[in-house]
Amino acid sequence: MHCHHGHLGYVGGPMRVYLESPFAGNRGYNHRYLRACIRDCISRGESPYASHCIGPLALNDSDPEERNLGINAGELWRAAAVKTVVYQDLGISPGMALGVARAKQLGQKVEVRKLGGEWR
User: Structure pTM?
Assistant: First the structure.
């Protein structure tokens, strides 16, 4: 099966990746950055999963118990991914560092990326 996505320019089946980027702090700015990271993944022929984007839609990130439920659910997706991609233009948060450690525990490849500029 071949997929073609016009101006994003990839052909072939997407590769599953687990996306790490900052979440806490300036959430509006970080969400804008996350959207750019997701777009970058898709343009590379990847299918990204970002638990810090999906979990807070249904769970209260301020409640430690619910936050842990979201993190644990995300780890199941990480195990199904080919690699973890870490976007570091805004630095590496404690949550991202934890994600990198978990990926390494799984023996998963970790790829560090920067979008550059104002994220193109």
Answer: 0.83
